[in-house]
């Protein structure tokens, strides 16, 4: 009986324990590709309860004890996920778990995620200023990409020329301006997700990089998981519709692998009126694996695209027409037509050889060739009125300025009514103006064309010298041949256009754009106006050693390169007819002097592991890099004059430091970073018309110093297995740190001689008082707070609030010289120092709050087949806010500026860009 009772008690306790144990299930997918992951290890901490995911990514942990447990999800090559859970009598479903690749321990391995919407905007007067939007597991970088990008926020206040973008280890940054041109591979999101991102000065295995880091996009066909994806997207941002498809074979028999993708994006107009969009993208990657040591991969990328531009406008224009207004378009035969179209057609072909020299040493050699054309259209006129509907003489404020006859209220009212009721480009007027003009058209639509051919060859060595030391090195050669010219694309019914410079006034020859072909009649497709070639050549390399130990990791890297530029004029401009370089008048025809620059850099950093969850990271670097082609020639369209003959054209020197404290626990992930960057001897060239000199000028500013410092913070708290809180902030200060030199260059004319320009068409204005002015680089203070909820039934929602502040207008440099307050050393009549200070005070934009939301759901519809839906809504509160702006240089002295500001809104006031109101993005996809 005693034995029976003991047996029954043990059986009862066993049954009780079994009844108290329950199951935990979920699905694990790749955080970037969203493809289910097979063979992922799932275990409960301190217990012998282990499972692995099936081919569809699903898993079940059986007989997990009730109470608080820690579920650990891990896979080699991915960052381990820890989920604190509370197990009860019910089955616990963790829902979808995202695993992210983690090839570099203790570092932020990030990816760059871009949206066509932000890349194609021009709110900072140049493409791609805010094009580099870094997104990753790091909550701060994700926030900067997804939440602050619409405000044209810049990481550390720096532009994209301070980063390097590679495809298969080959640099894609343009030699003309140093920036990556993302339109060259836009619309290929699904096949460009294999990205390796090194944040800031952290080491990269591919290249030395810049202070914003390195992104390498891998298109090796064998690295794509077999399967396909088809998706459709709808939006009211840049494009209205997008259809995208991709398919990868995986590794086939005999070692072949193929990946293909295509997409179509289309819109009659985006959020901004008249901004048409038409883009076609094609991609193919073909790899042959010969054996374990050798393989060759061929990649072809073709992304032909065109889009309608939008303009910055004065506050007067926005007050009348609203933030969606764009003056570049009008109706023609009932259809929207934009006069400013940016068109890019530049295919990329590359061939890469991968060689596993031995088990821990690889050599990757690549060759790339990119060619094609880029065009930016606009209207030219040899007579008649400026067709721009926002031309200052057509707006109400022009008639309300005091003149000899007083204010003209009648015409001001008529102008207001006309602008309110229409205010768009009148295409019919252009055809009417060209009636009966024959070969002497008044108006013509033309493109500023750039036809580039670039060859790049490089080789990258990676070798694990010991278990603790890794060597990375590369050699690179790039050669660019660039044709630059203007080309007629529409004569509005006329048969020809007289190729002359309508601003010439010294003699007969100076009216000629090409003395060798005087009074040429340009037809559709002909080159005219200007025609020249640019050549650039770069060769160099880098070497890096990485050391990894139990308590500390550190690295040291160095780079050196040689850069050369040269211009060759194909037209002999009548204003610059000289042939020899020592002539006082700049030459336009023939070759310029060859500019040579030696660049170099060094950086180092270390990570100290206080514990497995607490890390300290420090990095520092110094980079001396060549100026871009854009900033090396004073006015490359018209002559061979280099900036070096006007001011000091020097290497740009960048020194940068950052320090981070990182916490990574199962419940909390935090990163706090302080950064300090200085830029010295930068050069910038701007083009505009100034009433002060009555000239169209090139403003050449040299020796610019800037200082960027601040603190970045990212916090992510896993409050529940399904609920996450996140916050991010940046407190920055980006200022000019000196008073740079400024000179103006202009076409040689009677007006320029009267204004004191020398025989070269140059006038030195000395120093510009820019020190302590803020750099116009988007918001310098940003805060974000939000949450994400991921339901076990595979749907999710997230909401984020953002506050952005301390954004400033880009100041006019010429207005900060002594010429602003004096004329020939004499103060302007009625000069008021208090008013002058007010006029020169840099405008600060108001801070603003935005609210954004995302959501989505995934359905499994068969074995390894899924349907997904995603939606995002930006600026839910429809807040109107300014994202950027610049002071016009037209009223460049106290007399003109004070008169223009005397009666309310100025005629030549600051031009602004506004952010979008409420906008949406919807996507549905099918994966198989």
Low-confidence segments, given as residue ranges, are 5-20, 103-135
Rg for CA atoms: 31 Å
**Number of discrete helical segments:** 10
Structural class: mainly beta
- Annotation, overall tally of beta strands: 48
Helical residues, percent: under 10%
Reported for the largest beta sheet, the result is:
26 strands, antiparallel
What sort of overall outline do the alpha carbons produce when their principal axes are compared?
globular
Describe the fold and architecture:
This protein is mainly beta and 928 residues long. The chain contains ten helices and 48 strands. The strands form eight sheets. The chain has a 26-stranded antiparallel beta sheet that branches. A six-stranded mixed beta sheet has the order 9-8-12-13-10-11. A hairpin with a 4-residue loop joins strand 15 and strand 16. The longest helix is centred in the N-terminal third of the chain and has 18 residues. The radius of gyration is 31 Å and the shape is globular.
Feature tags:
928 residues; mainly beta; 26-stranded antiparallel β-sheet; six-stranded mixed β-sheet
Provide the fold topology.
Layout: H1 2-19, E1 21-30, E2 41-44, E3 50-52, E4 58-65, E5 67-74, E6 81-87, E7 92-99, E8 109-112, H2 116-119, E9 134-135, H3 139-146, E10 164-167, E11 170-171, E12 195-199, E13 213-217, E14 227-235, E15 241-251, E16 256-267, E17 277-289, E18 294-308, E19 313-314, H4 315-321, E20 329-332, E21 335-338, E22 341-345, E23 348-358, E24 361-381, H5 396-399, H6 409-421, H7 427-433, E25 443-464, E26 469-490, E27 497-498, E28 521-522, E29 527-548, E30 552-569, E31 590-591, E32 595-609, E33 614-625, E34 652-664, E35 668-690, E36 695-718, E37 723-736, E38 741-746, H8 750-754, E39 762-767, E40 781-791, E41 795-805, E42 822-823, E43 826-827, H9 833-840, E44 848-862, E45 865-874, E46 882-886, H10 894-900, E47 911-914, E48 919-927
Parallel strand pairs: 1-7, 10-13
Antiparallel strand pairs: 1-4, 2-3, 2-5, 5-6, 8-9, 8-12, 10-11, 12-13, 14-15, 14-48, 15-16, 16-17, 17-18, 18-22, 18-23, 19-47, 20-21, 22-24, 23-24, 24-25, 25-26, 26-29, 27-28, 29-30, 30-31, 30-32, 32-33, 33-34, 34-35, 35-36, 36-37, 36-38, 37-40, 38-39, 40-41, 41-44, 42-43, 44-45, 45-48, 46-47
């Amino acid at each position: 009986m005693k034995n029976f009772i003991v047996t029954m008690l043990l059986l009862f306790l066993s049954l009780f324990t079994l009844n108290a144990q329950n199951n935990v299930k979920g699905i694990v997918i790749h955080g970037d590709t969203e493809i289910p992951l097979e063979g992922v290890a799932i275990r409960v901490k301190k217990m012998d309860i282990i499972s692995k995911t099936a081919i569809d990514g699903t898993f079940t942990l059986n007989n997990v004890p009730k109470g608080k447990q820690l579920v650990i999800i891990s896979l080699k090559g991915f960052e381990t996920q820890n989920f604190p859970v509370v197990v009860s009598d019910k089955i616990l479903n963790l829902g979808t778990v995202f695993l992210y690749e983690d090839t570099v321990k203790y570092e932020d391995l990030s990816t760059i995620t871009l949206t066509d919407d932000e890349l194609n905007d021009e709110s900072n007067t140049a493409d791609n200023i805010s094009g580099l939007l870094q997104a990753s597991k790091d909550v701060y970088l994700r926030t900067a990409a997804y939440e602050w990008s619409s405000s044209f926020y810049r990481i550390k206040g720096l532009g994209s020329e301070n980063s390097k973008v590679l495809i298969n280890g080959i640099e894609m940054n343009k030699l003309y301006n140093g920036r990556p041109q993302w339109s060259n591979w836009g619309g290929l999101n699904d096949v460009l997700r294999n990205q390796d991102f090194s944040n800031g000065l952290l080491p990269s295995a591919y290249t030395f990089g810049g202070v914003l880091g390195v992104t390498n996009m891998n298109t090796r066909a064998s690295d794509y998981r077999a399967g396909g994806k088809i998706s459709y997207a709808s939006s009211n941002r840049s494009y209205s519709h997008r259809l995208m498809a991709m398919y990868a074979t995986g590794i086939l028999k005999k070692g072949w692998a193929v990946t293909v993708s295509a997409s179509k994006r289309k819109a009659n107009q985006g959020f901004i009126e008249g901004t048409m969009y038409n883009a076609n993208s094609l991609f193919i990657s073909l790899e042959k694996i010969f054996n374990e040591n050798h393989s060759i991969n061929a990649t072809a990328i073709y992304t032909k695209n065109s889009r309608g531009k939008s303009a910055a406008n004065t506050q007067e224009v926005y007050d009348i027409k609203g933030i969606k207004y764009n003056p570049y378009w009008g109706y023609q035969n009932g259809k929207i037509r934009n006069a400013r179209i940016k068109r890019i057609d530049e295919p990329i072909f590359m061939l890469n050889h991968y060689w596993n020299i031995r088990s821990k040493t690889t050599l990757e050699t690549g060759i790339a060739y990119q060619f094609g054309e880029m065009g930016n259209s606009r209207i030219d006129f040899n007579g008649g009125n400026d067709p721009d509907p926002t031309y200052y003489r057509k707006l109400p404020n022009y008639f309300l300025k005091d003149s000899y006859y007083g204010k003209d209220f009648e015409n001001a009212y008529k102008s207001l009514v006309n602008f309110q009721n229409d205010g768009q480009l009148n295409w019919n007027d252009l055809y009417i103006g060209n009636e009966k003009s024959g070969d002497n058209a008044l108006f013509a639509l033309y493109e500023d064309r750039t036809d580039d051919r670039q060859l790049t060859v490089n080789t990258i060595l990676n070798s694990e010298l010991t278990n603790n030391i890794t060597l990375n090195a590369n050699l690179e050669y790039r050669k660019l041949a660039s044709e630059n010219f203007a080309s007629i694309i529409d004569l509005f019914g006329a048969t020809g256009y007289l190729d002359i410079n309508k601003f010439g006034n010294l003699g007969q020859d100076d009216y000629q754009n090409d003395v060798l072909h005087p009074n040429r009649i340009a037809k559709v497709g002909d080159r005219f106006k200007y025609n020249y070639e640019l050549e650039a050549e770069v060769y160099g390399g880098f070497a890096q050693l990485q050391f990894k130990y139990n308590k500390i990791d550190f690295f040291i890297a160095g780079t050196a390169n040689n850069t050369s530029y040269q211009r060759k004029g194909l037209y002999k401009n009548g204003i610059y007819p000289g042939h020899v370089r020592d002539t006082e008048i700049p030459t336009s025809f023939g070759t310029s002097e060859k500019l040579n620059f030696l660049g170099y850099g060094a950086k180092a950093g270390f990570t100290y592991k206080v514990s497995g969850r607490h890390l300290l990271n420090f990095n520092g670097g110094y980079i001396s890099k060549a100026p871009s082609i854009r900033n090396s020639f004073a006015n490359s369209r018209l002559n061979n004059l280099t900036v070096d003959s006007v001011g000091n054209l020097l290497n740009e020197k960048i020194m940068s430091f950052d320090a981070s404290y990182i916490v990574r626990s199962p419940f909390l992930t935090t990163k706090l970073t302080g950064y300090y960057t200085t830029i010295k001897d930068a050069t910038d060239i701007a083009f505009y018309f100034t009433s002060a000199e009555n000239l169209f000028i090139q403003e050449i500013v040299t020796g610019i110093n800037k200082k960027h410092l601040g603190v970045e913070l990212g916090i992510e708290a896993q409050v529940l297995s399904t609920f996450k809180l996140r916050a991010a902030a940046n407190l920055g200060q980006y200022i000019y740190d000196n008073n740079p030199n400024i000179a103006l260059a202009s076409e040689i004319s009677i007006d320029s001689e009267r204004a004191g320009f020398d025989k070269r068409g140059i006038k030195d204005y000395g120093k510009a008082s820019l020190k302590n002015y803020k750099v116009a680089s988007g918001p310098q203070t940003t805060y974000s707070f939000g949450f994400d909820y991921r339901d076990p039934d595979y749907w999710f929602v997230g909401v984020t609030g953002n506050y952005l502040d301390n954004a400033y207008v880009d100041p006019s440099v010429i207005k900060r010289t002594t010429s602003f307050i004096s004329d020939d050393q004499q103060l302007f009549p009625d000069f008021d120092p208090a008013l002058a200070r007010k006029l020169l005070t840099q405008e600060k934009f108001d801070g603003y709050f935005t609210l954004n939301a995302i959501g989505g759901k995934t359905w499994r519809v068969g074995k390894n087949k899924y349907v997904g839906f995603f939606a995002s809504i930006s600026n839910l509160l429809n807040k109107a806010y300014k994202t950027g702006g610049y002071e016009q240089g037209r009223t460049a002295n106290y007399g003109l500026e004070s008169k223009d500001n005397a009666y309310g809104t100025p005629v030549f006031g600051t031009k602004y860009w506004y952010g979008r109101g409420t906008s949406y993005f919807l996507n549905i996809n099918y994966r198989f």
